[in-house]
From TrEMBL:
Lineage, top ranks: Eukaryota, Fungi, Dikarya, Ascomycota, Pezizomycotina
Any Pfam family the entry gives: PALP
Active site: 51 (nucleophile)
Full protein name: Putative 1-aminocyclopropane-1-carboxylate deaminase
Keyword Lyase on entry: no
Gene Ontology biological-process entries: amine catabolic process
Record's catalysed reaction(s): 1-aminocyclopropane-1-carboxylate + H2O = 2-oxobutanoate + NH4(+)
Organism of origin: Aspergillus nomiae NRRL (strain ATCC 15546 / NRRL 13137 / CBS 260.88 / M93)
C-alpha cells in the first residue's frame, strides 16, 4: 500500500471459543445476562440464512442450557449448492437450535415473524427472550463495543501505539454505534488523548437506514454509559457507502480481490458479506490517502459464510 499506513487488526473473529465467536458474542454477553435475570428459557432471534448472529445466539443458548429458536430469512439471493446447509446454519442446527426458514427479504428493522414466534413460545409455556437482528436494536446492544473501545485503549498502552482511525463494517449498526459511544466517553474522561475516527464501511446497501440506526443506538448507548444523548452528533457517524457492492450479501470483483489479497498476504481470512467489503474499503481509502497513520481494522468474524460462497470470485 505504498507505506501510507500501518495496519493492525483487532480479531473479534478469535474472541471466544464459543462456536467460533465473532462480534455478536460481545453483545450477547450483556443480552444473555439480561435474559437470565428475567428467567428466560428460550432465546429467539432472526437473521439471514448464513447469519453469524443467529449462530452465536445458538451457541450462547447451548452454553447456558437454554433453547434457541431462530428465524432464517432469505436475505441474500445467492445460488450455491450448500448455501442453506453449510457454514453458520449448519452449526446452529448442530447446536440444537430450532431453525426455521422464511422467504422474507433483507431488512434491519424489527420483523413481524419474531412476534409470531414469541407468541408461539409463550403458548407452549416457554419464557422467550427476544433478540433483534444482529443483537443491535436492543437497549443493551451497544454496550459490548463501548467496552471494546476501552479495551483498545488498554492495548494501545501495552503496545506503545496510538491509533488514528478504526475501520469497521456496519449493517445492523450496534457494533459501530458502541465504538462511537465508547470512544466519545474516553474523550470526556481523558481530554488530552488523541481523538479517533470510527470509519464505518457500509455492507447493507441501505446506508440511509444503517446510518440512522447507528446514530440512534450510539445515542442510546451514550446515555447508559454516563454521557448525554447530545454528546453524540451526526458528524461522529462516518459511514462510507462506496464498497457495499450494490446489494447486501453479494460480493463484486473488488470484494473478492480484497478477500484474496488479505488471504495471500497474511493468511488473513475475510468473507464476502461483511469483512471482505470493509477490508476492500480500508485498502482503497489508504491507497487514496484518505486514511493514513495508524489504522485499527476491526475483524468481526464471518469466515464460516465462505462455505456458502464456494465458487471463489463469483459475482452477480
Amino acid at each position: 500500500l505504498g507505506q501510507k499506513a500501518t495496519i493492525c487488526a483487532k480479531r473479534d473473529d478469535l474472541n471466544s471459543a464459543l462456536a467460533y465467536g465473532g462480534n455478536k458474542t460481545r453483545k450477547l454477553e450483556y443480552l444473555a445476562a439480561d435474559a437470565l435475570a428475567q428467567n428466560a428459557t428460550t432465546l429467539i432471534s432472526i437473521g439471514g440464512v448464513q447469519s453469524n448472529h443467529t449462530r452465536q445466539v445458538a451457541a450462547v443458548a447451548a452454553r447456558l442450557g437454554l433453547k434457541a429458536r431462530l428465524v432464517q430469512e432469505h436475505w441474500v439471493d445467492w445460488e450455491d449448492p450448500g448455501y442453506d446447509v453449510v457454514g453458520n446454519i449448519q452449526l446452529s442446527r448442530l447446536m440444537g437450535a430450532d431453525v426455521r426458514m422464511e422467504d422474507a427479504g433483507f431488512g434491519i428493522e424489527h420483523k413481524e415473524t419474531l412476534k409470531n414466534l414469541r407468541e408461539e413460545c409463550e403458548a407452549n409455556g416457554e419464557r422467550p427472550y427476544y433478540i433483534p437482528a444482529g443483537a443491535s436494536d436492543h437497549p443493551l446492544g451497544g454496550l459490548g463495543f463501548a467496552r471494546w473501545a476501552f479495551e483498545v485503549r488498554e492495548q494501545e498502552r501495552e503496545l506503545g501505539v496510538v491509533f488514528d482511525d478504526v475501520v469497521v463494517c456496519a449493517v445492523t449498526g450496534s457494533t459501530m454505534a458502541g465504538m462511537v459511544a465508547g470512544f466519545k466517553l474516553i474523550e470526556k474522561l481523558y481530554p488530552g488523548e488523541k481523538k479517533k475516527r470510527v470509519i464505518g464501511i457500509d455492507g447493507s446497501a441501505k446506508p440511509v437506514e444503517t446510518k440512522a440506526q447507528v446514530l440512534r443506538i450510539a445515542r442510546n448507548t451514550a446515555v447508559k454509559i454516563g454521557l448525554k444523548e447530545e454528546d453524540i452528533t451526526e458528524e461522529d457517524v462516518i459511514l462510507n457507502e462506496d464498497y457495499h457492492a450494490g446489494t447486501y450479501g453479494i460480493p463484486n470483483k473488488g470484494t473478492w480481490e480484497a478477500i484474496e489479497y488479505a488471504a495471500r498476504m497474511e493468511a488473513f481470512i475475510t468473507d464476502p458479506v461483511y469483512e471482505g467489503k470493509s477490508f476492500a474499503g480500508m485498502v482503497d481509502l489508504i491507497k487514496k490517502g484518505e486514511i493514513t497513520g495508524n489504522v485499527l481494522y476491526a475483524h468481526l468474524g464471518g469466515q464460516l459464510a465462505l462455505n456458502a460462497y464456494s465458487r471463489i470470485g463469483e459475482t452477480k
